[in-house]
């Protein structure tokens, strides 16, 4: 058996980053999307570091062109906490990173340097131990109202009507992530039970209501009319080229139907439909926070708690029910 080692070797990345990526995949079981995010953050950090430490020979290079493969262990051992804060200042000022984006980079740096010190034994001291994350102000989720959700469903038309209706119905009823929806296989569906692979390659069960089951059955009838043309016959959502529908294709499709429904196509995304599903379940379904956590596949219940602050009508009614509310009506 021949092995194409060259296809898995990456000569453009530092060995430490390659080792860290392998560790995340094989030991920690992180998804490819998560690993990609770590690589993007660390690549940016290494490029900044070369500028900050004066390690660039060619000053004409654009930031994205700065090579980082030469970041070796001797450079890693000299990194200080001050260097990490300088990087966070850089991404805020020059890359316009929000507090959320900077917080993610802090998490990446902490995880990377913990690996270097406690697993790879490359550095003696971990410079990220005392690295603090920026304060993040809590924001209420953006979501469609019940009436807006119904308007969106009614606006769906076109030659892929059944497919698009099924996708948006699953988003609005099940709160799926975009990556989860695109990876659904027909073999993952057993009656009213759908099995999806969420963040960190964690499997979870999603229960389908009547609207979802009906939308799926209607779509499958149309989908199977061209079964011979479909490349991977187990993939649920198929593109016009008879291949697996990409995340970008789903985003474009949703944008088109939002415009048809006269809704803000810039404000609402597939993830906002996930927010919508969670909000509607909490607001109208009397779903407790722990159950909602399981439905959404949140690892921490604190992530789910943002949906407990969205029902302004209940707050308004509570104030109106105060026994003193009519005291000045004379």
UniProtKB/TrEMBL annotation:
What is an annotated GO biological process for this record, any one? DNA recombination
Q: Which domain of life is it from?
A: Bacteria
Provide the Tyr recombinase domain boundaries: 139-320
Q: Which PROSITE patterns match?
A: CB, TYR_RECOMBINASE
Q: Ranges for the Core-binding (CB) domain? A: 11-117
- Say if the entry is tagged with keyword DNA-binding: yes
For this UniProt entry, what is the primary localization, expressed as one broad class? cytoplasm
Per UniProt, the keywords (alphabetical) are:
Cell cycle, Cell division, Chromosome partition, Cytoplasm, DNA integration, DNA recombination, DNA-binding
- Could you tell me one molecular function GO term of this UniProt entry? DNA binding
Q: Which GO terms describe its cellular component?
A: cytoplasm
Where it sits in the cell: the answer is: Cytoplasm
Query: Would the keyword Translocase turn up in this protein's UniProt record?
Result: no
Name of the protein in question? Integrase family protein
The beginning of the lineage is: Bacteria, Bacillati, Bacillota, Clostridia, Eubacteriales
């Amino acid at each position: 058996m021949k092995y194409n080692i060259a296809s898995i070797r990456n000569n453009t990345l530092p060995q430490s980053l390659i080792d860290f990526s392998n560790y995340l995949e094989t030991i920690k079981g992180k998804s490819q999307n998560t690993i990609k995010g770590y690589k993007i953050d660390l690549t940016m950090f290494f490029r900044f570091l070369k500028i900050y430490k004066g390690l660039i020979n060619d000053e004409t290079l654009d930031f994205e062109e700065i090579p980082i493969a030469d970041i070796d262990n001797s450079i890693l051992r000299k990194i200080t906490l001050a260097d990490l804060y300088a990087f966070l200042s850089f991404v805020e000022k020059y890359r316009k990173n929000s507090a959320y984006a900077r917080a993610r980079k802090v998490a990446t740096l902490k995880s990377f340097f913990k690996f270097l010190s406690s697993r790879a034994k490359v550095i003696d001291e971990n410079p990220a131990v005392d690295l603090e994350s920026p304060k993040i102000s809590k924001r209420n989720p953006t979501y469609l109202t019940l009436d807006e959700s119904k308007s969106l469903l009614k606006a769906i038309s076109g030659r892929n009507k059944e497919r698009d209706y099924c996708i948006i119905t699953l988003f609005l009823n099940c709160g799926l992530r975009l990556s989860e929806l695109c990876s659904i296989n027909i073999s993952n569906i057993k009656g009213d039970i759908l099995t999806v692979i969420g963040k960190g390659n964690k499997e979870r069960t999603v229960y389908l209501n009547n609207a979802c089951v009906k939308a799926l059955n209607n779509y499958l009838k149309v989908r199977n009319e061209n079964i011979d043309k479909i490349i991977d016959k187990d993939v649920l959502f198929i593109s016009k080229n008879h291949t697996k529908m990409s995340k970008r294709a789903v985003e474009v499709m949703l944008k088109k139907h939002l415009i048809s429904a006269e809704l803000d196509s810039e404000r609402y995304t597939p993830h906002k439909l996930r927010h919508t599903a969670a909000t509607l379940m909490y607001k109208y379904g009397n779903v407790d926070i722990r159950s909602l956590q399981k439905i959404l596949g949140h690892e921490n219940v604190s992530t789910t708690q943002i949906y407990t602050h969205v029902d302004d009508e209940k707050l308004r009614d509570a104030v109106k029910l105060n026994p003193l509310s009519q005291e000045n009506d004379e």
